[in-house]
Amino acid sequence: MKNILLGINVLLLALVGYLYYLHFHNSKNNSHQNVMASSGSSIDNIKAKVAYIDLDSLQNNYGYYQKLKEDFERKQSQANDEISAMQKKYQTRAMQLQQKAATMNQKEQEAAMQEMNKMQQDLQVCKQNIDNELYNENSKMKEDILMRIQDFLKVYNKDGKYSYIFSYEPGFMFYKDSTLNITPDVIVGLNKLDSSNKK
Fold it and tell me: Are residues 109 and 177 in the same domain?
C-alpha cells in the first residue's frame, strides 16, 4: 500500500513539474515573440534610403577623371617606349656580339657575357621601377578620385536623404532600380566643382 501511494505521489509530482514547465516555457516564448514583433515593427518604421552611382558612366563623363586617365595613359605609353628602346638596344648588341663570337678569344667572350648580363639586369630593374611607378601613380589617381567623390557626396547628402550610396559596376548587382540612380547629379556636381575650382 505504501509503495502504491509513493508511486502515485511521484507521478503527481512529475505531472505538476511538467505543467509548471509548460506554463513558464510558453509565457517565455510569448514574451520573446512580443519583443521580436515590437523590434521588427521599429525596424520597419526606419526605412533605409539607398542610391547608387554607375561607375562606368561616371568615368566616361567626369572631366577630371578623363584628364587624369589621359595623363596616366601618356606616362604609360612613354614608359613602354622607354622599355622597348632598351630591349631593342639589348637585342642589337646581342646580335653584334654573336656575329663577333667566332673571332673572340676567351677573355673577350667572358667580357661580352658580362656585358650582356649587365644589360639584361639593367633592363629588368628599369622595367620593375617603371611598373612600380605606374602602379603607385594609378593608386594615387584612384585614391584622389575616390576622395573627391566622397567629399562631394557628403555635401550632396547633407540633408541625410540617403542612408547608403553604393557604387555600381556591371556584374556586381543582379537588379537595380533606375530611380535610385544619382549618377547624373553626381557627374554634373563634380564637373561644376572642378570648373569652379579652376577659376
Answer: yes
pLDDT per residue, tens digit, the chain (199 aa), is: 545 555 555 544 555 555 555 656 655 445 444 444 444 444 444 567 999 999 899 999 999 999 999 999 999 999 999 999 999 998 998 888 888 888 889 898 899 899 989 999 999 999 999 999 999 999 999 999 999 999 999 999 999 899 999 988 777 777 888 889 899 999 999 999 887 766 5
Residue 65 and residue 148: Cα distance in Å, rounded?
10
d(CA 28, CA 49): 35
Q: What's the pTM?
A: 0.65
d(CA 11, CA 68): 85
Same domain, 15 and 96: no
Show the CA angle centred on residue 171, arms to residues 170 and 176, nearest 5°. 70
Of 186, 199, 197, residue with least CA distance to 61: 186
Count of structural domains within the chain: 2
Q: How many residues comprise the chain?
A: 199
